[in-house]
Amino acid sequence: MKKTLIISLLLFFVLGAADALNGMPAFARKYQMSCKTCHAPFPKLKPYGAEFAANGFALKDKDAPRYFADTGDEKVSLLRDLPVAIRFEGYASFNNAHSQSLDFSSPFLIKLLSGGVIARNISYYLYFFFGEKGKVAGLEDAFLMFNEVWGDLDIYIGQFQVSDPLFKRELRLSYEGYKIYETRPGLSGIDLTYDRGIMFTYGLKGGPDLTLEIVNGSGIGESEANPYGNFDADKYKNVLGRITQDIGNNFRIGAFGYTGKEAGPNGLVNSLWMAGVDATLSVPKLELNLQYVERRDKNPSFLLGASEIATRGGFAELIYLPRGDDSQWYGAGMFNWVDSDLEELKYQAVTIYGGYMLRRNFRLLAEVTYLIKGVEGKHPRFSVGMITAF
Questions:
Q1: Read out DSSP for 313-379?
Q2: How far apart are CA 187 and CA 241, in angstroms?
Q3: How many domains does the chain have?
Q4: Any idea what the CATH number is for the domain that residue 271 is in?
Q5: Between residues 82 and 388, which one has the greater pLDDT?
Q6: pLDDT digit string (tens) for 223-270?
Q7: Is the pLDDT of residue 115 over 90?
């Protein structure tokens, strides 16, 4: 069994890597820069990459009229070349969901990404899932960004992850996710993943940075528009407020609060709130990310006489880059924890993972997660995989 597993994994890497080694993502192609200018390792953003995204995916000291077509009409802004990139992920896992079997999950996802400047201070970003977990998933991130509307005020309109101002789930390095962000008690449809709405960000000189989100609170999963064109499942709008402050060059601390309501199919209403704190400590070679979230739901099962449900959790993640952003390999560890009045939500897991960069835009990875507490019982999960963007 061990020999078969090793041979299978080697074939998986060789066949999967054959066509993608020389690819370059769209923004790197546009500015003729290495991926490590913004990522270390990709898709994890460096501070420069985060600033680039906050500036509407534009380098203000490098953007020039040559990037736009000359139509003879100064009121028209058309990019000469539409920026497009593809992200491909594939995995092989053993004992996932306590199955005691080897599973080839490739392609696990294929994304078509596009983003860039539409006009001065107006940008867009979106990606479409050609395939996710074996099926077409459609659009997830898809928004317009209005940069520097008033001073340092930026406005995002469309679909985005509610947790983006905290830690961006799509930019993590691990197969294992940030469990507390996707936790939903009972029949609640509210979590800290994708939703539709509007987000305001404002940076005060010297800090702090402020964020305000107003969202439907219905997610984007199966919440298709009804015959009248409404995407929201009820009449309520939910609100998230966020404040973050850099302390020196190496430490950032933040806090957020979320409040809202949702109506169930029987007309009963669940009122809820969430609050949390987070921090990031970055020193040479090491980055430590911490998150804690507290949640209260009045009636997440939409039952008469239901009692309040308390849920809490968080994660700690430590990333080691031996040569900083020039590292060819990395190692990391993460602890996930969710506790709740509902037994089925309780979760604890320890993950050790690492990766090796064949190219700046092609990464091999290996990961071991040991589930300490969860509905599947105690068990380990082993995964190897590859991620490329081109």
A1: EEEEEEEE-TTGGG-SEEEEEEEEEEEESSGGG-EEEEEEEEEEEEETTEEEEEEEEEEEESTT-SE
A2: 24
A3: 1
A4: 2.40.160.10
A5: 388
A6: 566 777 788 888 999 999 999 999 998 999 999 999 999 999 888 999
A7: no
Which DSSP helix (H) or strand (E) runs through 289?
A: strand 286-297
Report in angstroms the alpha-carbon separations of 254 from 92, 210, 275, 295, 322.
36, 10, 11, 17, 27
What are the residues facing 384 on neighbouring strands? 92, 366
Range of the domain at 19: 2-389
SS3 37: helix
Kindly state the tokens that stand for 372. 């300490």
DSSP string computed for 61-85: TT--GGGB---S-TT---BSS--EE
List residues bridging with 312 in a β-sheet: 294, 339
Q: Indicate the pTM of the whole model.
A: 0.85
Look up residue 102 and give its two tokens.
């080897």
CA distance 237 to 318: 35
If you average pLDDT over residues 333-352, what whole number do you get?
Answer: 97
